[in-house]
Each structure stands twice: as C-alpha cells, then as structure tokens.
Amino acid sequence: MTNRRELTAMVLAGGKSSRMGEDKALIPIQGVPLLQRVCAIAKGCADTIYIVTPWPERYQDLLLPGCQFIREVPMFGESLAQGPLVGFAQGLAQVETEWVLLLACDLPRLRVEVLQDWISRLDRVGDNAIAALADHPKGWEPLCGFYRRRCLPLLLEFINQGGRSFQQWLQQYPVEVLPLAEAEMLFNCNTPEDLAKS
Q1: Are 189 and 110 in contact (CB under 8 A)?
Q2: Helix count (H) and strand count (E) of the chain?
Q3: What is the CA 156 to chain-centroid distance, rounded?
Q4: What is the C-alpha separation between 70 and 87, in angstroms, rounded?
Q5: What is the pLDDT of residues 110-153, one digit of tens each?
Q6: Whose CB has fewer CB within 10 Å in the chain, the N or C terminal residue?
Q7: What is the pLDDT of residues 20-73, one digit of tens each?
Q8: C-alpha distances in Å from residue 3, one per residue of 44, 93, 117
Q9: What is the sign of the dihedral through the CA atoms of 96, 13, 189 and 130?
Q10: d(CA 48, CA 71)
Q11: What are φ and ψ of residue 51, in 5° steps?
C-alpha cells in the first residue's frame, strides 16, 4: 500500500480570487484560514507538502508547519495568473515521489478520511493511467486528486503548445476513476455566496 513517504502533497494558492473579491486562501472558515485548513488535511496524508504560489510572503505568517513554498513564476512573458495547470507543472518539477496529491486551497469541506481511502487504492491504479481522480458531471475534478510524477513531460508539452485547461489535457490520457460517495466534499469557494454556504 502507498504510504505517506511515497506521496507528496501539493496545494495550489495562485489564483486571483477575482470572483471572491479577496484572497480565498486567507478567508477564515471556523476561525482558520482556508489555506491553513487544507494544508492541515494534506499533512494527514503526506510527509512532504508544497504550497505553490506567486506570493509566498503573503502566507508565510500562517501556521503551516512542515510545508515548503514553491514560488510560481511567469512563463513565456505571461502575466502571473496563468492558471492552475502552470502552477502544477512548476510544483511537479520538484516532486520526487511517484504520486502527488494535488489540492486547491479553496476546498472547505475536504475530508482526510476520504483522501486516505483514495491513497489506499493507488497501488491498484493501472500502469498506463497518469492520474486517479473523482469524476463529476462537468468532467474530472482535477484539483483534488492524484497524479503520477512521470506525467510532467506530457504536461509541459501541452503547456508549451498553449494549453491551459486541465480538462483538455486529461482528455488525452487514461485516468483512473476514484469513488466519491459525497460530491459535496469537492465544493469549492469561489464567490461570497459560496462562502456563505461553507
């Protein structure tokens, strides 16, 4: 069975939060900033946790023991907000384990026991699959799932061709489906209305 040392967790905190109107990562849920909540759950799954963000200084005062920052940098002269796919690629280049758990920083209903159940299934994922993700009506849920480190060259090729969509990239390769009993775990906070529900 895949254990904590064979898995790296990566939390993406690079979005502009334009629909929210304030930085989502810093919004307190039950008194704890969202980024800190998500990192604490990641800590229940992996020993190594990377936070990929253009703004490490903004978050360094949060209580994030054991987490390391990876500074996201613009590619090809683009503006900083270049989407989660680019941040993921930059973080993945630092990963040394076979699997990485990728999480967005705006998932207030994440449940560590569901993630741990998914981790227990990674050994049975087919060799040809680049990822193991939950499925929902809009497609894959790319920002709460597992990716093999070896998908990095495929990812960079897609980005270098101008691709920025996780869904379009994932459509090109085999992906293992993870069981999801309660879709609400994947609820993400994008707007003040979402925040009111969390």
Answers
A1: no
A2: 7, 9
A3: 17
A4: 9
A5: 999 999 999 999 999 999 999 999 987 778 889 999 999 999 99
A6: N
A7: 556 788 888 889 899 999 999 999 999 999 999 999 999 998 888 889 999 998
A8: 11, 21, 12
A9: negative
A10: 16
A11: -110, 115
